[in-house]
Amino acid sequence: MLKYVLKRVIYGILTIWIVATATFILMRLVPGGPFLSEKAPTAAVTKALEAKYGMDKPIFQQYTTYIRDALHGDFGPSIKQRGRTVSDIISSKFPVSARLGLMAVGFALLIGVPLGSLAAFNRGKAIDRTIIVICSAGVAIPSFVICTLLMYIFAVRLQLLPMIGLDTPLSYIMPVFALALLPTSYVARLTRSSLLDVMEQDYIRTAKAKGVPLIMRIFKHALRNAIIPVITYIGPLLAYLVTGSMVVEKILTIPGLGGQYVSSIIQRDYPMIMGTTIFLAVILIFMNLLVDILYKIIDPRIKFR
């Protein structure tokens, strides 16, 4: 396993380098710049700002300087948030997104897996069809529609939940539900289809013929193998959610990393875009590696090559 992990780490470092390089090049190819606004600065001011942030140097020199500093954990200063570094912004915003993301993933697993199991063991019945319809709607409805409906019903009409921020425990209900609806629906569908396939296997029929109780057949034999596709999905999902769901955080005015990432793109804050993109890539690669290791823990028959 150690050899496999080392190989994955090397591939991960290569992937991060490719992501950083592609992001750096694409930002420079897009017309305009970070210092343009409705009130355009003079040429002298623009040159002074470019010199301050090292953007007056040749592109290759800017690239090598940035990669060297990034290797030491320095993503540079934010262009739009004066006096703050990208690392400081990420460290202050990431815990908010991580807290929401972990809560959403936990909700998706606690609700999605039982729903999928319930649908699988009632295949073709009314409860199965109902769960399928609900899950299909949960996957199809965009997150910004969910956010708008939640805000209108619970914040505007009923005035039960706060509309913005995360100041109270009630503030977490709308963003967590909006983040968790799609993964919950997808986890339920994955669990159902995987469990239906596993229940047709010979070892499940043998356990049933031996008189093994239904609960034991589900949790000890069937669900353990059926959960592997769910873990495959949860890995990248967790990386995405803990880094911040951009649309949900922006609409609900949550001070997380996702909303900050959207703002940095709109404002052309090059260092912030680079730092957040690299950070997301690192989290995603780490979660994929963790998922592969969990495969081995759940099913010892899996061999790493």
Features:
single chain; 305 residues; mainly alpha; 13 helices; 73% helix; flat
Note down, in words, how this protein is organized:
By secondary structure, the protein is an all-alpha fold. The protein has helices at about 1-30, 45-50, 60-70, 85-120, 125-140, 145-155, 175-200, 200-210, 215-225, 230-245, 245-250, 255-265, 270-300. Helix 4 (about 85-120) packs antiparallel against helix 5.
Indicate the low-confidence ranges by residue numbers.
none
The CA-CA distance between the termini, in Å, is 9 Å
User: What share of residues is helical?
Assistant: over 70%
- % residues in beta strands: under 5%
Specify the overall morphology. Answer: flat
**Main beta sheet:** none
Q: Tell me the number of helical segments per DSSP (H or I, 4 or more residues long).
A: 13
- Average pLDDT level: 81
Helix and strand composition category:
mainly alpha
Radius of gyration: 24 Å
Q: How many runs of DSSP E, i.e. beta strands?
A: 0
Helix and strand element order: HHHHHHHHHHHHH
